[in-house]
């Protein structure tokens, strides 16, 4: 009886090997990367929150979905301290509108969309009066870099115009701060509220020191 010759496995051709690696690479890429989307969202509900992350139910592209965001970023966006009952204060204003960048189901960047959505301070002192009482400390405490951020954001939100921004920007740091707070304060409560809110976004520590939040 002739011995049975062992069947040797067929070797993969170079073409088959390259094709397999390409397919695996494509599959891995699709599963590990998440699409980045930017647009307007409405925060409808807080599902769960702790000091690290907050899970939200939002409406985005006409569809409701659950997303999460770092609690610090969410608090800074709406000018609220993390320990200052964020859930209660934010929930009382819902639905809240914001501009957000989402990667998968994570919000990586979020911007509040103006004074109508800002979380108000829990007292009856008009915003322009608040600015008046903190004017000296603001001028002493705000940095030049943060002043430039304030100017850009206030221009985007139509609180100041191009001419006002250029006039303020050319001055020294202290004069720039003095001119900015006075220009906005003279525009009334809405503009003053937005300056306070924007300062909370740009410099939370100074906002806390000025007791604006």
UniProtKB/TrEMBL annotation:
Domain CARD, chain residue ranges per copy: 135-203
GO CC annotation terms, alphabetical: AIM2 inflammasome complex; IPAF inflammasome complex; NLRP3 inflammasome complex
Stretches assigned to coiled coil: none
GO molecular function, one term: cysteine-type endopeptidase activity
GO biological process per UniProt: proteolysis; regulation of apoptotic process; regulation of inflammatory response
Transmembrane segments: none
Pfam families tied to this protein: CARD (PF00619)
InterPro entries, alphabetized: CARD, DEATH-like_dom_sf, Pept_C14
Protein name, per record: CARD domain-containing protein
